[in-house]
Design a protein that fits this description.
The protein is α+β, with helices and mostly antiparallel strands and 1012 residues long. It folds into eight domains: 95 residues, Beta-Lactamase (2-Layer Sandwich); 105 residues, Beta-Lactamase, CATH 3.30.450; 99 residues, PAS domain (Beta-Lactamase); 102 residues, Beta-Lactamase (2-Layer Sandwich), CATH 3.30.450.20; 109 residues, Beta-Lactamase (2-Layer Sandwich), CATH 3.30.450.20; 105 residues, PAS domain (Beta-Lactamase); 86 residues; 142 residues, 2-Layer Sandwich (Heat Shock Protein 90), CATH 3.30.565. 39% of the residues lie in helices and 28% in strands. It has 29 helices and 35 strands. The strands form seven sheets. A five-stranded antiparallel beta sheet has the order 2-1-5-4-3, with helices on both faces. Strands 7-6-10-9-8 form a five-stranded antiparallel beta sheet. A hairpin with a 5-residue loop joins β19 and β20. α5 runs parallel beside α20, α25 runs antiparallel to α26 and α28 runs antiparallel to α29. The longest helix has 56 residues. It is elongated, with a radius of gyration of 50 Å. It starts with 30 loop residues before the first helix and ends in a 7-residue tail after the last strand.
Length: 1012
């Protein structure tokens, strides 16, 4: 062999930062260690874990499986602040500095943002120590948990919407299970329970509380049973609260179904309709529309039509990969664009025509600029609508392939150096004096043979290693004449090199050491590889021992041969208990049929790996959901020897998904059964992302028409008098000045008419407190506003009538009572004069007595006119009977009174007062205007109503009299009667015609508790 020249030794290139530098050293390392290292490297490549090392200055020194588009060569030697920016890097820096200072590992969830890409990671940071045990940096393991975070955020938003919809709704909402136990209720339901005389109910309580009468409980049980049988229906009820107020409710019953579609309970939505009873149309079933989002992905994705191969859609990564604009790709085929290098359209496309299932292939692609890139592609057939398509997931592996080529070249160079180089040879005496050196020694150390012989070997060794070398040499004896020593030396160029010397000692017959011969060779590269291997093993040990992923190795029989602590923790076993168990032992039996074929395909070499979600049975019997990635392990000849399983516990995610589905189902039920409009406005887009059927019906527009109305037009539709306060209140809610606001305003619906609405709004904020949406509950209050206006008008008219009544009484007091009092005063003076003159007063006394009797009768008449049934202890029937008798006696008109169905029972004060006043006014009209010979008054109760009928056989009158006539003045009294009845919630009917008498009929509804 040719011997390299003194200055021709090449320093090997450093291995790539994310590779394992063990190639080329198979002759130097034990085979078992190499096999273990290879398995570790395969394990790392198969995991979705990001692993990296940083020194004490937090500069990246090694990266495995980079994320967020980061390449290893870009990060080595740089810090998080260099790569992410100071603001984004601050949370990471704090965690890592803490580990460097305390020496204790940390684990936190962190959000990493780089170059517009964001991801949540479960970050584990552990200290990295050198051979002396000093902390020289950190090693980090990051697991992508973005999906879990998104699920949690979705659940939080859904819960916030559900809470607002339930507790912010103006309806009473509650649900029961099949045993009539309360599942949940909102605050308004609790208030109604208390107001009705019951007690508050809590989840788990009996909804059929024994505090209510048996007949009410039986009725509600029947209603619940109908809903539990699957019926959806409405039921009205009426009751009186503790204050005696009558209240009406419209209750809607609907079945509750679990995720399997089975009825698990009933949902009841109760709306208070006391102020008005409105019949609303039944809610139409609607389906929520969900938009399909073509997600951004670091992996290039392209979809093409199976029939002609033309691209239907591509993502941004696909555009970046090929360098074409999206418009240049859509509608063209890969052949037309020349996307494949030469004519190597993958055989996978042909295979997909013949055999379904994803095909993983490697290919070479040509970019728009003509450069060639190596790709790894997963291609599958999908169906979009009714059209068969190809979907391809493409990863650029060009850099990885180039590194592999360079690594093979480096390996060949190192092998040539090792095979062609001869060993260093030297001999020295017991005191270390050199007696012989060969040419290799001279070239290696840069000294001639003459300069070397006679000198000591010590200066050529690193001073720190000399004591160790001398100690090892002292172990040489005639019985143990050979010792191998590895130590550092200074080469000719001044660099420090590792050497391995095989030392053989020669002794004389007496056992005295004569000379030692050493044969040495350069093992620097091996030492570096061993150090790298130890560091790699330390990194992988961190992954195995501290990672949140469960890792297990198994043999071809499916038995566990190794499992890390996380794997034991997932299954609830103590460390080491899983070794020897078959994976079927802890896999739920129902999940085995889906996984066994995948394992067989993996062992047969038809699959590189597979992913599956399944269930494990823990040692304590609990079932947990896991996500598993299985990878085959092969020996150097390519034969399968076992498998590697990467396992993550996704039970919490599954539970979150189930909770989300349940919450969405409950929310959908509430939305569909709500009589009020419910909406969710996205503040960023200005569009409604949720519109309940009731919300759409209130406006008269369709869903699409509502979303096409601009914010300015929406504001323009608010009545000008209501616009300013409505806008200001919503601004305060969005700014956080008010937690929620309820406003009443008029809004122009599609028909062009203004309708009154009551609108309750509250804001939804993101994790950073920014307002992202407004939740609104809208109720049509047009009818209520109309009733309020009519009530105000009626009160105003009644006030006018009462004022007229006061004027009438005032005139009577002035024209009659006051005149008689004046006459009485004159008579008294005359009596006084006669008495003083001694005249007899008998005639005067008679006149005075007559005047006093007339005054007494006038005062009694006025008192009767002002009297109500409330002043009479015997109740309304007694008061009316007494008044009719007195009226008949006073007016000399025959009258009779009849009462049916009361039995002395008292009515509410408002009803008694209204009926007495109407009867009083009707009899007064008869006395003044009817010229009747006979009158009758009938008071009766039947069918939940109290009726008052006053009839006479007088002259009657025209229903529409001319102004300034007797009938017109009589009409004012009738108007007063009508307004009184209307305010009491009843109806007033008048029948009359000239010469046919008059009939007044009043109907007033009785409260339920007053109904026999």
């Amino acid at each position: 062999m040719d011997t390299p020249s003194r200055h021709s030794t090449e320093t090997p290139k450093e291995a790539p930062a994310n590779s394992l530098p063990t190639e080329g050293l198979a002759c130097e390392l034990p085979p078992g260690l190499l096999a273990h290292a290879e398995r570790l490297r395969v394990a790392l490549a198969a995991t979705p874990i990001v692993i990296f090392n940083q020194d004490r200055d937090l500069r990246y020194t090694w990266i495995g499986n980079p994320a967020l588009g980061l390449k290893a060569e870009e990060a080595i030697g740089r810090t998080d602040e260099d790569l992410l920016g100071s603001e984004a890097a601050r949370p990471l820096t704090i965690i890592k500095r803490q580990v460097l200072e305390t020496g204790r590992g940390e684990r936190q969830d962190v959000n990493v943002v780089r170059a517009g890409q964001s991801g949540w990671y479960d970050l584990t940071v552990e200290p990295l120590r050198d051979t002396a045990g000093e902390i020289c940096g950190i090693t980090c393991v990051a697991v992508d948990i973005s999906d879990r975070k998104r699920a949690e955020t979705a659940l939080q938003v859904s819960e916030a919407i559900r809470h607002q919809a339930l507790h912010g709704a103006p309806d009473s909402v509650f649900a029961i299970d099949r045993e009539y136990r309360l599942l949940f209720n909102n605050d308004l339901h609790q208030q109604i329970l208390i107001a009705s005389g019951g007690r508050p109910l809590h989840p788990g309580d009996d909804a059929l509380s024994p505090a209510y009468p048996p007949e009410i409980l039986a009725h509600w049980r029947a209603l619940y049973d109908r809903a539990l049988r699957g019926e959806t229906f409405s039921e009205d009820n009426e009751w009186r609260d503790r204050a005696g107020n009558r209240r009406f409710f419209d209750n809607r019953f609907a079945p509750l179904r679990d995720p399997r579609g089975e009825i698990c309970g009933a949902l009841i939505v109760a709306r208070e309709v006391t102020e008005h009873r409105l019949a609303e149309e039944s809610l139409r079933e609607s389906e929520q529309r969900f938009a399909t989002i073509f997600r951004k992905s670091p992996v290039a994705i392209g979809i093409s039509r199976l029939a002609d191969g033309r691209f239907l859609d591509v993502n941004e990564a696909f555009v970046r990969l090929y360098g074409y604009a999206r418009e240049e790709l859509i509608g063209h085929t890969s052949t037309e664009l020349g996307l494949w290098h030469s004519d190597n359209r993958p055989a996978a496309f042909k295979a997909l025509h013949e055999q379904p299932g994803p095909q993983v292939v490697e290919m070479q692609a040509r970019r728009k600029d003509g450069t060639i890139r190596s790709l790894q592609a997963t291609i599958d057939r999908i169906q979009l609508g009714r059209e068969d398509c190809f979907v391809g997931f493409l990863s650029d592996v060009t850099d990885r392939r180039q590194m592999e080529v360079e690594l093979r070249k480096s390996e060949m160079r190192h092998r040539a150096v090792i095979e062609d180089q001869t060993e260093v040879l030297l001999r020295f005496t017991a005191d270390g004096t050199l007696t012989f050196v060969n040419d290799v020694f001279c070239r290696f150390f840069g000294r001639s043979r003459g300069e070397s012989i006679g000198s000591q070997w010590h200066p050529r060794a690193v001073a720190e290693d000399v004591p160790m070398i001398e100690a090892e040499l002292r172990t040489l004896t005639p019985g143990n004449p050979v010792v191998t020593i590895e130590n550092r030396v200074y080469a000719a160029d001044g660099s420090v090199r590792w050497m391995q010397f095989v030392n053989r000692a020669f002794f004389d017959a007496t056992g005295r050491l004569i000379e030692t011969q050493a044969v040495g060779r350069d093992i620097t590269e091996r030492k570096r590889a061993e150090m790298a291997l130890r560091q790699s093993e330390a990194r992988f040990r961190t992954v195995f021992e501290h990672g949140s992923f469960g890792i297990a190795l198994g043999d071809l029989g499916g038995r566990v041969t190794f499992a890390n602590p996380a794997f034991h923790q997932i299954l609830g076993y103590d460390e080491g208990e899983l070794v020897g168990l078959s994976f079927q032992h802890f896999t739920l039996a129902e999940d085995l049929p889906a996984e066994l074929p995948l394992i067989q395909e993996l062992i047969a070499g038809n699959l590189n790996q597979y992913d599956i979600e399944k269930r494990y049975v823990r040692k304590d019997g609990r079932v947990v959901w896991i996500q598993l990635r299985g990878t085959a392990l092969h020996d150097p000849d390519g034969r399968p020897v076992g498998g590697l399983a990467m396992v993550q516990d996704i039970t919490a995610r599954r539970q979150a998904e189930a909770a989300l589905r349940e919450s969405e189902e409950l929310f959908r039920k509430v939305i569909e059964n709500s009589r009020d409009g419910i909406n969710l406005l996205d503040l960023k887009s200005g569009k409604y992302v949720l519109l309940s059927p009731a919300q759409v019906a209130l406006t008269g527009f369709t869903r699409d028409e509502i979303n096409q109305i601009s914010a300015a037009e929406t504001l323009e539709r608010v009545h000008p008098d209501d616009r300013l306060i409505s806008v200001e209140q919503q601004k305060k809610v969005a700014a956080g000045e008010l937690p929620a606001v309820t406003s009443e305003y008029r809004w122009k619906v599609k028909s062009g008419n203004y309708r009154w609405f009551s609108d309750s709004r509250s804001v939804i904020r993101d994790e950073e407190g920014r307002a992202i949406a407004l939740v609104g509950v809208t109720r049509d209050i047009t009818e209520r506003k109309r009733l309020e206006f009519e009530r105000a008008e009626a009160l105003a008219r009644l006030a006018v009538i009462e004022e007229q009544e006061r004027h009438r009484i005032s005139r009577e007091l002035h024209d009659q009572t006051a005149q008689r009092l004046v006459a009485l005063s004159v008579e008294l003076k005359n009596l006084e004069t006669h008495l003083a003159a001694g005249k007899a007063p008998s005639r005067r006394l008679t006149s005075l007595r007559k005047t006093v009797d007339e005054l007494q009768q006038q005062v009694r008449d006025i008192a009767w006119d002002l009297r109500t049934g409330e002043l009479v202890q015997g109740g309304l029937d007694h008061a009316l009977r007494e008044y009719v008798e007195e009226w008949s006696e006073r007016t000399e008109v025959a009258a009779d009174f009849e009462c049916r169905g009361f039995g002395g029972r008292r009515l509410p004060t408002l009803l008694e007062s209204t009926l007495f006043r109407v009867a009083q006014e009707a009899l007064a009209n008869i006395a003044k205007h009817a010229h009747a010979r006979r009158a009758s008054v009938l008071l009766e109760e039947a069918d939940g109503l109290v009726r008052l009928t006053v009839e006479d056989d007088g002259r009657g009158f025209e229903p529409e009299p001319a102004a300034d006539t007797l009938e017109a003045r009589q009409r004012l009294g009738l108007l007063g009667m009508k307004e009184r009845v209307r305010l009491a919630g009843g109806t007033f009917l008048l029948e009359s015609s000239p010469g046919a008498g008059t009939t007044v009929l009043v109907r007033l509804p009785l409260p339920k508790e007053d109904t026999p």
